[in-house]
Sequence to fold (267 residues):
Amino acid sequence: MQFTIQTRDTSACLSTYGAEMLSFRHQGIEYMWNGDPQFWDRRAPILFPTVCTPKDLKMAHDGVEYPMPKHGFAIEKEFVPVLQTPAKVAFALEQDKETLGMFPFRFRLTAEYAVSEGGFSATFTTRNCDDKPMTYCIGGHPGFRCPMFPGDKFSDYELIFHNAEGAYVTGTDNGLMSPDLPHLDKIKDGKLDLSYETFDGDTLIVQDLHVAGVKLVSKKTGHGICFDFTGFSALGLWTMSEAWEQSPFLCLEPWNGLPASSDETTD
Fold:
């Protein structure tokens, strides 16, 4: 089921499947990736209760291993609408037999979206409904059109960080982090230039940012978006970079939690 919320100049379309944002338009301009399956058929999935790839696609708790898919299971679940106003909608997900076979906790995950004349907000709220501590990760995976405007190309864009002093960038190896992977010299003077070669090593992970915010803008015009991810500890950056799949989108992924490390267990 899909819902549309709007104000005078902005509108968003949301789906109960995965509680995923499908579209955001402001003053007639579409900013979200359209889910073209030639490249990537998602748009803005929610990552829960894992972020990226678990070790061996498993999660261990109290000595018991459970299967856990990449990015968790919320991405494939039907959420229940719990709130709708003209400019706001919220969806909720609770445990069921399938999730308990992967994640042995009772929980409630709520995703609330709102639009305003200045843009949109997405708020994820997790509630532990069990009688034991609940360990989990949560993140977003929204894809934005890049390039956004006619006449631009992907390499015309850059990321501008509000305060990147001391921040560092790492990559992944087959979806996993590793203590052997070096810090990458990608951010210079608070900026990260975009090219498909930038993402040859798959996802880039930015950590230790002083301010949880970044701008994705065209170097030619200065137009773009400001992305605030307050409340999240890391930012993933991803697009499909292979020569035959140079995708016209960039994902800005706020994470609490990280991909598993190659030297970790499944705990």
